[in-house]
Structures are given as structure tokens and as C-alpha cells.
Amino acid sequence: xxxxxxxxxxxxxxxxxxxxxxxxxxxxxxxxxxxxxxxxxxxxxxxxxxxxxxxxxxxxxxxxxxxxxxxxxxxxxxxxxxxxxxxxxxxxxxxxxxxxxxxxxxxxxxxxxxxxxxxxxxxxxxxxxxxxxxxxxxxxxxxxxxxxxxxxxxxxxxxxxxxxxxxxxxxxxxxxxxxxxxxxxxxxxxxxxxxxxxxxxxxxxxxxxxxxxxxxxxxxxxxxxxxxxxxxxxxxxxxxxxxxxxxxxxxxxxxxxxxxxxx
Length: 263
Description:
By secondary structure, the chain is of the alpha+beta class. The chain has one domain (2-261): Deoxyribonuclease I, Chain A (4-Layer Sandwich). 24% of the residues lie in helices and 25% in strands. The strands form three sheets. It has a six-stranded mixed sheet. A six-stranded mixed sheet has the order 5-6-7-8-12-9. Belongs to the DNA repair enzymes AP/ExoA family.
């Protein structure tokens, strides 16, 4: 079973850059998209309801902003679009999907930068991290099989970005943001890519669109799939698909033993 996550930075733009061709060739069973930035009715039917896929969307109230979506080859048992906090729910940042015994959260974590890159959104971002972590604590402790995947908007360690020294004051690598990821891992969550591959360097998932930084691989690893210990037992592989274009992020994936769905 293959599960993918991808911040498409505008699904309509990504479709124009070949998203549907990638979708057909992906061999994915389920794909979580972040930053869809469109209401479902603003998407073409081919991208909203592609043949062979079941789709679920949670747009933000504000048009052209945020939003998440799931594409699944089989119907999901349930999908919730709320974390019971209106300030978070209005931005369309979370889908909580259940398929068999596996719970998958498709999440677009907030960026800490305000409109003028003034760090004004960091409190909101940290509150979001904390609320989601606390919301999942009981399931984590009771042995639920859970994946939390998406654009976390934070590089956890210096190995996770090409220019750590020059970005220590930048949202996405500030100490208070990185400490929140520490809390997730300390609670028992597993960074699937690091668990499978260890501390391999220069593997990134996002690159600025300025200049030729992607060609030079001057990037950040800010997209993750975190697994609960119970889910991690079924993880066979984890990958960064940095050869896939179409967005300033690239897709990431985990391969799971399909027994993860069973009783």
C-alpha cells in the first residue's frame, strides 16, 4: 500500500504542469494534497473527479488560500474536516481519514510568516501544532495506527535545510518551531523518512522559486510523514520523490504492509 503527500502549491496550476499524468503513473493508493487553493467547483471535472479515484476536499473559507484534498483508489470509511477549533477549521488545514484500522491525517501546517514576513503568525502556528498533538495523544498512547502527513512548514534539524546558519531567524527554522517538532518525536511519533534512511544529507522537499535553487538543490525538508509506533510497525519504505516537478514542493511517500488496514 502506497501513501503519498504533496503540497501542490495550487492544484489548478499543478494540473497545468502535468498533475493528472503523474497521478495516473504514481502507483499510489492514497494521496494527500496540501495548499489546494481552490474550491472544488473551481476545479475541472477531470481534476476534481478523475476516473478511478475517490476524492475528498476541505477548502479554506478564504478563496485561493490553503485547502487540503485526498485522492484514494478505494472509498474511505470516513473523512472529518474539523479539529474543533474554529480559527483552525476556517483555513481548511486538516482532513482526518479512516480506512480500516488506519487513521490518516492530511495536514497543511501554518507558516509562521505574516503578510509582510514579520513572524506574526508564529503563535498561531505553534498553537496549531500543540492542539493537533494533544488531540492525538490518547490515540497514540492506546496504540492506534496513525499517520500524520503533509507540509509541516518547519525544518527540524540543521541537516534538513541547505543553509541552516543563515535561516536561524527565519520562520520554518526558528528554535520555538523546531522545539515543537521535538515534542512530537519525544511523545513517540516517528519521522518515517529518517527511520528508514537515517541521516542522509541534502534530501529536501521544498525549494524557493527564485533563481535556480532547485537545480542546485538548495532546499528545505519540511514535508513529513509521521507515524505512531503502532503504524510504524507496518512501514516498509519511505521516499522523497524530488524528481517530480509541478510545484515548489515534491511528493513524499511511505509504502505500508497492507495488513495495517486489518483487525
